[in-house]
Amino acid sequence: MILYPAIDLKDGQAVRLVHGDMDKATVFNDDPAAQARAFVEAGCEWLHLVDLNGAFAGEPVNAAPVAAILKSCDVPAQLGGGIRDMATIEMWLSKGLQRVILGTVAVENPALVREAAKAFPGHVAVGIDARNGKVATKGWATETDVDATDLAKSFEDAGVAAIIYTDINRDGAMGGPNIPATQALAEAVDIPVIASGGVSSLDDLTALKATGVISGAISGRALYDGAIDLASALAALKG
User: Fold this and answer.
1) β strands within 114-191, DSSP E
2) Is 129 a catalytic residue?
3) Which end of the chain has a smaller Cβ tally under 10 Å, C or N?
4) Which residue among the candidates 11, 85, 129, 171 is catalytic per the annotation?
């Protein structure tokens, strides 16, 4: 199972939110590229980047820090937030991003997900952010009546590289991930599922790995707070 250290970008800084609330942002590093390098030096194999402002604006806002991270780090990175058209997808992949994460458009324009996955095999992931099993979009500000599992199943034949499943109620709260819901989703589809939201201890990571069906986990606040030692966690997940 791959551990993806998260760098959430707001106003050019690396921050963490609680339950996706932009007014509850804690700044952890005002140099996101330096933070990324620290994660790479600790041994991470991937980076998970989120343009928080972009998720609300519907277009890239933190392009400069993302570009700086891509330039200074030699591990693959995935990015979500504000990626809602083919031109933006092409732009990011041309800059060296390994994987784009399409969230809002997966609900509003699923044809774009299919088009992008076909055009860029292996480079398109779907971000499914759910609150009580229902998908939320536009930086989690808009509730829908779309069931998370139904949305995932609808892309089964699209060729997407992964599904990033976030339980919004757990995100940033250090209360542990929603393992049953994530496991159920992973068992419902053949697409690799990456868990996000609430991963706050080594026990959480080993429990996710023990399901045998979850391919990765994203952690942010726990790495910044020191609740998870990145090097130790990577070693444990390899074992």
Assistant:
1) 124-131, 134-137, 142-147, 162-167
2) yes
3) C
4) 129
